[in-house]
Amino acid sequence: MKHLIPILLCIAAAGCARTLDLNSDTFATGNASQEKFGIDNQHCAQQAELKRSYDLQGVDAENVEKHRIYNRAFVACMRAKGYEERGGLLDFWVPYDL
User: Fold this and answer.
1) Whose CA is closest to 51, among 36, 24, 72?
2) Which residue segment(s) compose the domain that 27 sits in?
């Protein structure tokens, strides 16, 4: 029983790690100033939240689906503004179909 609790905690933590919203750490600032990057990041986060709210209105979606909708919208917005993902970072997010 002693060994079962740490194993279950690790499994729970691993499951939670896959259901996070992406943020500005996912993207490199490129030639943009920190101020512009921050404003663009905030705008994309708001747009992604709006997309998630609209797509899930009246729907009892799973938690993973909520993050998938947010992450796809956030990445699309940041890419449209000319930002590129940091190398190799999105390999972790393959389950989100980014």
Assistant:
1) 72
2) 4-96
pTM: 0.65
* Residue 74 structure tokens: 């956030």
Answer positive or negative: Cα dihedral of 67, 68, 69, 72: positive
> How would DSSP label each residue in 55-87?
HTTT----HHHHHHHHHHHHHHHHHHTT--BPT
Q: What is the pLDDT of residues 12-68, one digit of tens each?
A: 444 444 568 888 888 888 899 999 999 999 999 999 998 888 766 555 556 677 888
Using the Cα atoms of residue 49, residue 54, residue 58 and residue 63 in order, give the sign of their dihedral.
negative
Total number of domains in the chain: 1
CA distances from 21 to 1, 16, 25, 68, 80 (A): 34, 11, 11, 8, 18
